[in-house]
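Suppose you are handed only these lines of text.
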Amino acid sequence: MKIFNTRQELKSYLTAQKERNKTIGLVPTMGALHQGHLSLIKKAKRKNDVVVVSIFVNPTQFNKKEDLINYPKTIKNDTKLLESVSCDVLFFPSVKEIYEDHISSEKFDFDGLEHLMEGKFRQGHFDGVGTIVKTLFEIVIPNHAYFGQKDFQQLQIIKKMVKKHRLNVKIKGCAIFREEDGLAMSSRNTRLSKEQRAAAPFIYKILRKVRKKFATESTDRITKWVANQLKKHPFLSLEYFTIAEEKSLETVKKRESNKKNRAFIAVFAGEVRLIDNIRL
Ligand code: PAF
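From them, the structure of the protein bound to pantoate can be written out as follows.
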């Protein structure tokens, strides 16, 4: 596996690959890799000649300083995992390499998608995501880029950015990878205490029950039910729960068979924020 720390080195390597008609797949990550990331890389390997994984803990997408400081950094283990799935290129730049002396985000208009759910609770988050993903696209110029559906809103926002900015890259959304007990894989899971980790699968249990209830109950009733379930919980507290249409991410009032809906949830286990979603 080749490892590059600068834009210039990566660009010249990829230019040579493109001159030989090689296709490029990009998997942007913030490191602390797990099986979910590896599944994206495996998918990228099947479709592209060269797979680039970026590891960059992007400061502009964190709305809380402590969350950025505490974000797990495990580059040695990440490198081993990347080698185990025959990743071709690791791009591991410094903050200075990406932002020079101005650590700030570009302002984006994602047609309102940025103000819902995660956007409501994490001010400026999607400007930060848009900034880094657009920068990575400009450096790598990938044919395909891969993102997990756990961050479903992020995925929709990146698709929107590609459309609005007419970027020449195909976005591939990949299924959520879960632990055996149902907890969605996330780099943040490593920060959970023993008790919090044991409690966390409750989130997916709730989502599965929501899927059943959605056949017969109104969104309002289900939303209240979810809030009640979490009110009683000793280790988890609810930040938001919503049932929304997949593309617009607008809240839906009731089931309409011609629409694709999803339930979205954000929960705190102590200081650790966990999100998950399910197709209904
Ligand atoms: O999903 C993530 O890990 C990050 O938001 C991303 C897409 C790598 C941008 O920093």
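What can we learn from it? The first helix runs from residue 7 to 19. The domain at 2-174 is CATH 3.40.50.620 (Rossmann fold).
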